[in-house]
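Hi there. Long-time user, first ticket. I'm pasting a complex I've been working with (about 352 residues overall). I'd like to know whether the download I got is complete or cut off, because the file seemed smaller than I expected. Thanks.
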Amino acid sequence: MIGHEDGLFLPPGVVVTSTGLRDEVRGVELPLNEAGRLVVQSASPLSAAASLTARYDIDERRALTDARVFCAELNDRLLLNLRVRGGGAVWAVRWLVAAARLLPFGAVPALPARRYGLDTASGAALVATAVRPLARIASVLGAGAAAATAIVLSTVGVASLTLPVTAGVTVASSLVVHEVGHLLALRNVPACLVTRGLRASVLHRRLDPRREAAVAAAGPAAGALLLLVALAVFMLHHSPEAATATSLFSLQLLGCTVVTRDGRRLCGAW
Amino acid sequence: MIAFALGAATVAVLAVVGALVLAALAEASERPELRVALGPLVVLEFERTAHGSSTTFGPGLIVLPLLGGLLNAAGAAILRTR
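Hi, the file is complete. Here it is re-exported in full:
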């Protein structure tokens, strides 16, 4: 999945030390040998392969394969960020090609992860640093929800512009508010935001079980506030738009059950 | 107990919201009647009469959260044994 000329860079909170790669957020260190150090300090797998070939007496093609595999492994462990040359469209084509090869064997290609630094010193700083990366995913999910709603409505013969827009805005705002809820419970805790395809999650240092549960509960709780607002509007107006928003916001509460990862952490704390 | 309470509360809110939305949709769509039930247990009954309409929330709205709470508690217990 990683191209020869994709950009490689260390994510915020990850530094090269004399012994390896240190993750300041998780408080762990991955030992690196000299070859590994050469790769993580290169601008791309191609330049990493050139450095490896120059330093060690190995075939350039093998060096390139090794560098790409190592970079993919580091990216999977959230220790290396990638900048895909050509952008999201190139990445989507690569993923489809890889999926066509792997699916017959029952495997699905991994989605590249991207880690974003967060300023956890204050609530305002947290929100300011988190909203931009979340907005990208939220806009894509919102557009998808709006399109799906429009398709469903057209199949049942309902012509409406406001309902798909309401569904899109509801889904997008649900995602942002849910993640910001988690983040606000992590003030002064080293944390970062991780996106993997259309999935967003929060990576943070290990906490005591009660605090972990509080962080897990904060996401659905923030979403529940939106539900209360939508429910109040619905009780006043009984409009189909308010009904759509209320129904979609209510799904936030599934985050309190074992159906979701948040819920499993929450229920597992007691 | 916490897992039961969380599951029950979640399903209760989902059921109530679902019932309210369905009742409003039934009202707007000018259907003569709408009945949602779990076997013999009525969740929602909407009926249009000559003088207006009536919506009744049945005992299903109490049973559903209890079932949700039990399922969530069972799921949490299974997760703890792993």
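A couple of notes from our side: The mean pLDDT of chain A is 89. Chain A touches chain B at residues 227, 231, 234-235, 238, 240, 243, 246-247, 250-251, 253-254, 256-259, 263-264, 266-270 (CB under 8 Å).
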